[in-house]
Design a protein that fits this description.
Residues 27-84 form the DNA/RNA-binding protein Alba-like domain. The chain contains three helices and six strands; from the N terminus they run βββαβαββα. By secondary structure, the protein is α+β, with helices and mostly antiparallel strands. It has one domain: 2-Layer Sandwich (Translation Initiation Factor IF3), CATH 3.30.110. It is elongated and about 50 Å long.
Length: 127
Amino acid sequence: MAAAAVQYPTSQSGQMIQVSTAHLGTNEIRVGQRRSEAYVRLAEQAFLHHDEIVLCGLGNTVRTVVSCAEIIKFRKYGTIQKISTSMVELDDGIRQSVAKIQINMKRNEGIRELLEKIIHEKSQETV
């Protein structure tokens, strides 16, 4: 499979920057400019299929990544296994470094069944 790239929006300039996605797995949630709750819902869906998820973000989205991880931990959906931070060199005309964070989270025991029940109840409410 060829290495792909994804575009991340930068919040200050509104420009799009390209980052390689060759390392991404299907359990990785790339956090952007939406509210934290949107990514928590994505994490709930990911925990239905994966024992472990990875939340990651660049630049100003670092605080949203941390907020999402704390919400997931508070709701007892999962526990934080590892936090990685680094600086990513971007070359989008102007050479610059941007902060990157990755938070690995492991699903807690019994949460899959609970999430399936919650999703089933929500689907019944909409019918």
